[in-house]
Amino acid sequence: MIEVEDVYFTYPNGVEALKGVSLKIYDGEFVAIMGQNGAGKTTLVKHFNGLLKPTRGRVLVDGVDTRHTTVASLARKVGFVFQNPDHQLFSETVEEEISFALRNFGFDENVIRERVEWALNLLDLAQYRKASPFMLSGGERKRVALASVLAWDPDILVLDEPTIGQDSYQKEKLRQFILQLNQQGKTVIMVTHDIEFVAECEPKVILMANGRIVAEGDAKDVLTDPEAISAASLIFPEIAQVFLRLNDLGFPRKVISVYEAKRLILERLRPVMRL
Amino acid sequence: MSMFDGLKYRSVSSPIHSIDPRAKFIYVCILFVIAILFSQLIPLLIILVLQVPLVILAKVKREWIRLLRGSAFFALLIFVMNVISLYFYGGGQSLEAIIERALAMSVRFMVLVESFSIFFLTTSPDMLSLSMEQMGIPYEFCFAFTTAIRFVPVLAEEAQTIIDAQRSRGLDLEGGNFMRRVKNYIPILIPLIVNAIRRSLELAEAMESRAWGASKKRTNLYVLKMGKKDYIFILISIVMLISSIYVWLTVKIPSITQILQSLM
Amino acid sequence: MAIIEAKNLSYTYPAANSPAFKNVNLKVERGEFILLTGPSGCGKTTLCRCFNGLIPHFYGGKLEGELIVAGLRTVEHPIYELAKHVGLVFQNPENQLFALNVEKDVAFGLENLGYPRDEIRRRVDWALKVTGIYNLKDKPPFELSGGQQQRVAIASVLAMQPEVIVLDEPTSFLDPLSAKNILEVIHRMNKDLGMTVILVEHRLDLAARFADRVIIMNNGEIIIDDEPRKVFLDERVRLIGIGLPKVVKLYLLLKESGINLGRTPLSPEEMYESLVEVLFHDRG
Question: Where in chain B are the domains?
């Protein structure tokens, strides 16, 4: 469990990026942290594995204060997948890339071999095992980065802008993959501004603006709240845009899913069908 | 804020900032010559103090003092080295003379550093590059210069991101012996280099797409024209130079020790 | 005459085994707004780089077939000449800005072309105003947001006043609000200035409403080339796995259930209007 207690953070250059943030993320939750670029989302999640320590307040990961432990030990529990895979790829082969963290954490050679195998298969990379990560396509490199984090099986997974540069097929696969991981009990925290993707995943949503949390709740509630959306400088999901206006005609306001939209419209147009 | 902020351009509006970089460069060169000319403490102190009004006019007092503090360490080093060498090889001068001489060398160092500081604090890299262009340095070089400066903060940020990413995978950058520490920097250096190469490819594409190399006679949005203010500044600098040379040739400058002795 | 004409165009990168795209036939008329999309690796990015001559002059490789842009055969003219007619805006705003302030960046292309200073000044101010960033003209690129940086990139291409502007996934790194604003700017350039626009985009929900034509590529070939409303109804689009806007998905789902909403909606506003019509019609 991650507990953020009234955290303030100021960068060395004087910019105050977090202004009193309090938050609890329970085990097994699926959370999306959203907001404009510069709202403080990435700054916040960097506190979860100790890369940043609060200027004021504290962050507890499974009861441990992040200021009193190392990044390496927190990283065992909190796996961070950065936005740009090219910021971490450096090995000669995909295999070596995936085993890098495992070696750092001191795993046994046999265990490393097993885990690498498992991660390669999980992300459909077995054929590239001996390939150089630099020779792979953008999407493949993203999968290698993801595989190298999943390899050590962290309980909590933080994904920073996982959908950037992906086409819709890749996004759909990612969505299913994330849901699968969450169902297996992993806590998944997603930092993103991809509203449509979040509308499809329907996680718990936290909106940030100017270093503060401006809204927190179910996707359906938050993404259809005009005040929250405006405070976070976002736009409504497409379906919500339609139903917010249809509200005048007696439709519910909080609709973000295409399937729910269909159901509601058919109900109205074909009351006969309900018999 | 580090010592190096004393050499980084500070964007404010001041009379010194608006002086043509070429005029300022001439000033720095002349100051250089004058500082080398004199080895006595009194004239060097005078030169150091004379720069203060310039600093105040340029509104860069804070950064200038910071550089002063930072270079104090090296000034001290020079002082100590001079004292030692003068003591053993100075030909039997009195202790006061040695100290004064060494002090003069330190002050000379400070004068040189401070004059460069004023130049860089009040000249934007853009104006610097423009003056380089107008002085005849090939455009490719000036362009490389400004582009490098433009990307310094970007690369610094990227380096930090890479360090964060690898630390998040358990990389320990602190522990271990020297060899181990060097090895631990490979996961930082390789992505840095690879990304730099990727970035330059994208930059090259963008440059080509904006007609890079279209014309041998490249024009410029800005132009540096020397005005009255700039010529006056150069004139003042030349007057300083001429009077310094005159003083150096004609006046026998006493050392402080001699003054003190004559008073006693 | 069409402003862009491609006949049986195929291209293979140097040291590649198979072509990035093949047998592309395309005609674009002046003033059209083309939306080019397709799954990753379909060849759309490569095709973009042909329009201003980066392919073949910068990348090398083998370009076969014919490509004529603004009356010039791209293989016969250097990039700096084609740049006067075709502007190219890339995905990552940061790597398109080299100068230490905005207006110098916007002036870059014109300086390269050797225009006189007052002409540069005039065009730079104009381009800054069109893209709505005149107030940022003295700022260094590092202080700008992604959306602002991308506007600078567009302004710097606009200043050269090309007939065609090609944008390769310009909203990739932008948040939805900035993306929306940038697309508005591009739309105005097309509508008000009559520029021909070729936009490569995945965000069909934001971009489709501006397009005259949608071209979909897959595996190096053009599969569909038609107006957006017709394209979205095409079976093949769903098979390729293109991300249809949610309102289009809703439209298709309702259609399957026997509800006909009329023309395919290209925006939530259009969907709302179609629904209202059907609901009132139903009541009446």
Answer: 3-123+226-263, 138-209
Say whether C98 and B211 touch across the interface (CB within 8 A).
Answer: no
Is B156 at the interface with chain C, CB within 8 A? no
Residues A223 and A112 in one domain: no
- List the domain range (segments joined by +) for residue A116: 91-153
C122-126: Cβ within 8 A, 24+ apart:
C123/C159, C123/C160, C123/C161, C124/B221, C124/C155, C124/C159, C126/C159
Mutate: best of B200, B221, B222, B225, partner C, most C CBs <10 A: B221
B215 touches chain C (CB under 8 A): yes
Q: Which residues pair with A190 in a beta bridge?
A: A32, A159
Alpha helices in chain B (DSSP H): 21-37, 41-57, 61-89, 95-122, 125-134, 139-167, 178-184, 186-209, 228-250, 256-263
Please report how many Cα atoms fall inside a 13 Å half-sphere around the Cα of residue C4, on the Cβ side.
29
Question: Could you tell me if A34 and A100 lie in one domain?
Answer: no
A127 and A246 assigned to the same domain: no
Selected residue of A13, A84, A90 to mutate for chain B interface (largest B Cβ count, 10 A):
A90
Structural domain count, chain A: 3
**How close B26 gets to chain C, by Cα (Å)?**
25
Q: Check CB contact of C268 with chain A, cutoff 8 Å.
A: yes
Question: Is a pLDDT exceeding 70 seen at residue B49?
Answer: yes
Q: Which of A46, A84, A104 sits opposite B171 (nearest CB)?
A: A104
Residues in chain C: 284
Please indicate whether, in this complex, the C-beta atoms of B164 and A51 are within 8 angstroms of each other: yes
Answer whether residue B258 shows pLDDT above 80.
Answer: no
Q: What CATH number does the domain containing A3 carry?
A: 3.40.50.300
The answer to whether residues A230 and A257 belong to one domain is no
Six-digit token string for A18: 């977090």
Query: Residue A92's pLDDT is what?
Result: 93
* Per-residue pLDDT tens digits for C155-191: 999 999 999 999 999 999 898 999 999 999 999 999 9
Please tell me if residue C15 touches chain A, with a CB cutoff of 8 Å: no
Q: Given A153, A174, A193, which residue is the final one in a domain?
A: A153
A154 contact B CB<8A:
no
- Residue B4, pLDDT > 70, answer no
CA nearest to B164, candidates A51, A89, A85: A51
Per-residue pLDDT reduced to its tens digit, A234-250 = 999 999 999 999 998 88
> CA of C244 to nearest chain B CA: how many angstroms apart?
30
Average the pLDDT over B4-25 and give the result.
77
- What was the ipTM of the complex prediction? 0.90
C-alpha B13/C-alpha B31 separation (Å) is 24
